[in-house]
Amino acid sequence: MYAQSNEIKVFTANANPAFAQGVCDALGIPLGQCEVKAFSDGEVSVTITETVRGRDVFMIQSTCSPVNDNLMELLIMIDALKRSSAARVTAVIPYYGYARQDRKAKARDPISAKLVANLLVAAGADRILTMDLHAPQIQGFFDIPVDHLLGNPAFVKYYMEKFPEHREDMVVVSPDVGSVSRARAFAQKMGMGLAIVDKRRPTANVSEVMNVIGDVKDRECILFDDMVDTAGSLCNAAKALKELGGAKKVWACASHGVLSGPALDRVEASEMEELMLLNTIPMPKNYTGTKIHQLDVSGMFAEAITCIHDNTTISKLF
Questions:
Q1: How far does the chain reach from its first CA to its final CA, in angstroms?
Q2: Which residues are catalytic?
Q3: Beta pairing partners, 288
């Protein structure tokens, strides 16, 4: 149990209420009372049903599917809390949507990640708490403090217990060149080697595997990424590791399970033994397979909230 203080209030909307309840359970405080509904035309309706005057408020909301609905709920909740005289409002966004649109990849592209940052600040957020941004430089899009948690400590603990011996014979694999630094940090903590799947992406959400860089023959591999959307990249990488690299087994983990489109069917039919995710995004209600599982990081967020409230360092969480 972490800090118990009547000055802390935690609220949530409709994106992932079970996660918010887990945070409150770890903090030892009740979840804040509010109603977040929609008018008949789809507009968000918010009512805060308890006082927040002078309180340190944490508003938990992942901007996952339906992304725009959840984003608007978050913005309107922040506005409602600020207008109710909350002393400080921290937007706790376990999964930050629009993060993949962090630069102009071609002419006349928007930079949507920056726009969302502007909207959060304009709504009244005083600081941001999030986890594993797709592009870490998004922290610089904000003119308010951003606490950026990393999910790899949860995965390190899980795989240390899952593979207590012979980890030096295993390999951490980055599914693309862009994720190499993230995979390297994980491999160093695990005491494992590193390999890379080099791929070409002809169109959005379509990947074509080109080559496996590194020795994975007759070894067990852990694919490590920050998110799984349609799962095409991850499944193709697992196939390449088996067919091109000669890997013995392929496990996979990622912080955020977006799991859109054909992702669930792809994962179940893939060469992966297991896909381990964090519970920053709720599992799809229609999932009935056996390969996808989640680790609970609500306790990590609860500890970060305690540190923020008490003005102490959160570096111990890394």
A1: 19
A2: 199
A3: none
Tokens 């403090």 belong to 145
Give the mean pLDDT of the chain: 94
Per-residue pLDDT tens over the stretch 56-79: 999 999 999 999 999 999 999 999
Report field, pTM of the whole predicted structure over 0.85: yes
d(CA 31, CA 299): 15
Q: Topology of domain 8-150+298-317, per CATH? A: Rossmann fold (3.40.50)
Q: Where in the chain is the domain with CATH 3.40.50.2020?
A: 8-150+298-317, 152-295
CB atoms inside a 10 Å sphere around CB 42: 8
Secondary structure (3-state) at 151: coil
152-295: CATH architecture: 3-Layer(aba) Sandwich (3.40)
CB 152 within 8 A of CB 166: no
3-state helix, strand, coil in the chain (%, to 5): 35, 25, 40
* d(C-alpha 271, C-alpha 75), whole Å: 40
Burial of 181: CB neighbours in 10 Å, binned 0-12, 13-18, 19+? exposed
